[in-house]
């Protein structure tokens, strides 16, 4: 028998329906952008290049919006490297990544935050808020290190769970540095191949992937331990609050 949460069942059904709608919209965007490729990234790149000295700033804005529409990040970062080279391109990619994280998290928060709290219940939501206050920033950083996870989809989820926007911005900037460098270098090598840069990018990618896998495994074990023994987390919080 499920524990009573004080939330009427119709409210839960409405919250579930809203979340299902959000997930459906994101799934459609993912299909259109990442699978069907209805957005012509090369055409957008040509338009941006035509803006001259404002091209880096224009690319940051356009790439942030395209990323929020679930256009694959590596493709956007490669375009940045192709246009601006490995150095300036990396900073342009990082700016676009932070912008994408803010846009996606804001939309996720507005679209799914209240529904998520309704489904979780007040007690679980408050516990989640405490966890976010304590480690939300590093959760964002850690997610960026894990290979194979869409940063944009993760940002929508972080927003729905209530991660503050400042944590999203700082976490995305710190956590995206390695991959932003790697993918931007790959894009820059299309115009002019550099063996040292390519080797450096490969090493950075491998180190980041290993570190991300290790961090994900450790985080999973800690989450399982906290779920199986929630009193340990609560006791630890109470103890730290008294110090």
What does the average pLDDT come to? 82
**N/C terminus separation:** 39 Å
Shape: globular
The secondary structure category is: mainly alpha
What helical percentage do the residues reach?
Answer: over 70%
Q: How many β-strands, per DSSP?
A: 0
Alpha plus pi helix count: 9
Number of self-contained structural domains: 1
- Radius of gyration over all CA atoms, rounded: 20 Å
Main sheet, how many strands, which sense, barrel? none
Percent range for β-strand residues: under 5%
Spans of 5+ residues with little confidence (pLDDT < 50)? 1-5, 233-243
Query: What string, H for helix and E for strand, traces the elements in order?
Result: HHHHHHHHH
Keywords: Cell membrane, Membrane, Transmembrane, Transmembrane helix
GO cellular component, one term: plasma membrane
InterPro entries: TMEM64, VTT_dom
Main location: membrane
Give your account of this protein's structure.
With 243 residues, the protein is mostly helical. The protein has one domain. Helices cover 85% and strands 0% of the residues. It contains 9 helices and no strands. α4 packs antiparallel against α5, α5 runs parallel beside α7 and α7 packs antiparallel against α8. The longest helix has 48 residues. The chain is globular, with a radius of gyration of 20 Å. 35% of the residues are buried. Belongs to the TVP38/TMEM64 family. Its main location: membrane.
Can you summarize this structure?
The protein has 243 residues and is mainly alpha-helical. The protein has helices at residues 9-35, 41-49, 55-68, 73-120, 122-145, 151-160, 165-191, 195-228, 230-242. Residues 1-5 and 233-243 have low confidence and may be disordered.
């Amino acid at each position: 028998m499920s524990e009573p949460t004080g939330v009427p069942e119709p409210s839960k059904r409405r919250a579930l329906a809203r979340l299902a709608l959000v997930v459906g919209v994101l799934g459609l965007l993912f299909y259109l952008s990442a699978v069907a490729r209805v957005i012509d990234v090369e055409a957008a790149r040509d338009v941006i290049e035509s803006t001259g000295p404002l091209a880096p700033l224009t690319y940051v804005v356009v790439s942030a919006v395209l990323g929020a529409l679930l256009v694959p990040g590596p493709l956007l970062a490669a375009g940045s490297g192709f246009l601006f080279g490995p150095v300036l391109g990396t900073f342009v990619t990082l700016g676009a990544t932070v912008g994408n994280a803010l846009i996606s998290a804001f939309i996720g928060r507005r679209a799914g935050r209240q529904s998520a709290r309704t489904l979780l219940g007040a007690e679980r939501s408050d516990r989640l808020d405490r966890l976010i206050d304590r480690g939300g920033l590093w959760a964002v950083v850690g997610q960026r290190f894990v290979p194979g996870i869409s940063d944009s989809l993760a940002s929508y989820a972080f927003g729905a769970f209530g991660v503050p926007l400042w944590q999203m911005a700082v976490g995305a900037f710190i956590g995206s540095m390695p991959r932003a460098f790697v993918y931007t270098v790959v894009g820059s090598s299309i115009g002019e191949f550099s063996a040292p840069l390519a080797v450096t990018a490969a090493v950075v990618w491998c180190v980041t992937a290993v570190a991300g896998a290790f961090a994900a495994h450790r985080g999973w074990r800690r989450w399982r331990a906290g779920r199986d023994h929630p009193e340990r987390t609560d006791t630890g919080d109470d103890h730290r609050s008294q110090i």
